[in-house]
Amino acid sequence: MYSKFVMHIVRVLLAVATLLGLHSQIAQTKDWWENGNYYQIYPRSFRDSDGDGIGDLNGVTEKLPYLKSIGITAIWLSPIFKSPMVDFGYDISDFYSIQPEYGTLEDFNALIAGAKQIGLRVLLDFVPNHTSDQSEWFQKSINREPGYEDFYVWSDGKVDADGNHKPPSNWLSAFRYSAWEWNEQRQQYYLHQFSKQQPDLNYRNPLVVAKMKEVMRYWLDMGVSGFRVDAVPFMFEVKPYEDGTYPDEPVIDDVSICPDPDDECHLKHIYSQDQPESIEMVYQWRELLEEYTKENGGETRIMLTEAYTSFDNLMLYYGDGVRNGSMCPFNFYFMRNVKNDSSAQEIVDIIERWLNNMPEGVFANWVLGNHDTPRFTTRLGEQRADVFTILLQTLPGNAVTYNGEEIAMTDGKVTWNQTVDPQGCASSPDTYEHYSRDPSRTPFQWDATKNAGFSCADTTWLPVADNYRQNNALAQLRAPKSHLKIFTKLLRLRKTRSLQDGALQIKAIGNDIIIYSREVAGDDLYVIVLNIGDTKQNLNINEYFGMGKKAEVIISSMQSTYRDGVIIDPSNFVAEPYVGVVLVKV
């Protein structure tokens, strides 16, 4: 049963959408996933329906109308499979079962049915690189059961002069220290590129490849519309030497960047990551999705891929000109390269590089944040929240929204004693804030009641951010103007022809101004002006784009003095500090 609060959101936001007064015709020719907005839900932090302090599937189902009302195309759920929760779901012990904290298979079916009823698609987080050490597969591999002997990456390692076992290479885990762990029972080392409780599967074994394809088909049969694929570059390693050892990876050229020899950033991962076979596996998964689409009614099933890798590799993830790959190889360049002191030209360069190099016939994508990085409002400043939201939502292609970005949530404060992220726990009280991902995972701020409306529990799995009474979805819904209302308007605007199909013409003016246009011939001309700096600047927009004598303000940042709907003179435009404005030619 949907809450009164959620239904109120639906009614009000849908009313707002109908009153936007957008000029363009809505584009109708796209496949469902093209030029969409993909909303990442971290289930543990989204909504707790049963009062145990942990978000769950029924909580997600409760909030589906909210997500539909703000214009989301599809949701993707961080892992919900059975897990010991060492890495909060990324250590999967059973790919075919739901983690009990999150609910049951019946709850999942109800979520799928609820989403289908209102026209939302559901994507699952697919974690192919590793399993939990509690997986039945791993236990069978330890015991060398037939078919599972080399289901994981095993090695005898090395033996020193004193007869002591040593790892087969110097490879380091993403969570620090050696990526090899000795298993006393099997008398071998196994590879784990994340925590030691996450042994890496051996994709050079065809049975592993077949088994993971079975997992994908199972969940497609359950009604999901595709997958976000986790940590793709880690799936393959170079083949071992004849003695079962592996080549050591070289130390980075400038060790001052990462002086800690136990931190993975200390090495160049030329043997343990980014092997060409990983990209080949993405192509095989795309073939599976295309086959499934043809076999089951023709609605496209999609794949989003996570890969922190080189630019050239990311372009290959799309395809190689013969075979198709990921529909959406995540573009993390905003997330990883844009800083507080980044110039307008640096941001424009990031945009143009992607658009000018991606293969023909594919879609760009833009990402500001996720569950592994500080929230973009914390990184780039709350005063610029709307500027970057406007940027993300008005560029060509697909946009990805991490839950809470639509209300400009900031990182919560998590003390050392409250830290649960294994990446943070592997550090120390003095350094944990540098490593922990917990602050970006604090509970969603729904309203100003206890625990921000996330849970009625006395204690939540992570503390709620202190600012929830001022910054929450309900308050923003009630406000005359808010981040949430701006976000909703932008997603409505994304569906117009010029924002769907219009070419991008973009320029940087000085250090702080980004100005660009989107237009389809015969339709509306939109011009977006973003001031990322703290100083107002006077512009004659007609020097860059011919808007004529009149333009209407369609959307503007919270602190802008330009009211939405006002008619202005483009030749005498004031770009206010930390303000983004969307204009349409009148």
Task: Sum up the structure in keywords.
586 residues; TIM Barrel; Oligo-1,6-glucosidase, domain 2; single chain; alpha/beta; Immunoglobulin-like; 8-stranded parallel sheet
Write the layout of secondary structure elements.
Blueprint lengths: L3 H15 L18 E5 L1 H4 L10 H6 L1 H6 L4 E4 L3 E2 L11 E5 L6 H14 L2 E6 L9 H7 L11 E2 L2 E2 L5 E2 L13 E4 L4 E4 L14 H16 L4 E4 L46 H20 L6 E4 L5 H8 L9 E2 L3 H5 L6 H14 L7 E3 L8 H5 L4 H10 L3 E5 L19 H4 L6 H4 L37 H6 L4 H11 L3 H5 L1 E7 L3 E7 L5 E7 L5 E3 L11 E6 L10 E2 L4 E3 L4 E6 L1
Parallel strand pairs: 1-2, 1-15, 2-5, 5-11, 11-12, 12-13, 14-15
Antiparallel strand pairs: 3-4, 6-10, 7-8, 9-10, 16-17, 17-18, 18-23, 19-22, 20-21, 20-23
Strand percent estimate: 15-25%
Distance between the termini: 45 Å
Low-confidence stretches: 13-23
For the record, what is the CATH homologous superfamily label of the largest domain? Glycosidases
Q: Please tell me the CATH architecture of the largest domain by its name.
A: Alpha-Beta Barrel
Query: Approximately how much helix is present in the residues?
Result: 25-40%
Number of helical regions: 18
How many distinct domains? 3
Rounded radius of gyration (Å): 24 Å
Quick check: average pLDDT? 95
- Structural class category: alpha/beta
Which strand order does the major sheet show? 13-12-11-5-2-1-15-14
At CATH level 3, the topology of the largest domain is TIM Barrel
User: Sheet bearing the most strands, described?
Assistant: 8 strands, parallel
- Assign the CATH class of the largest domain: Alpha Beta
Task: Assign an overall shape.
Answer: globular
Compute the number of strand runs: 23
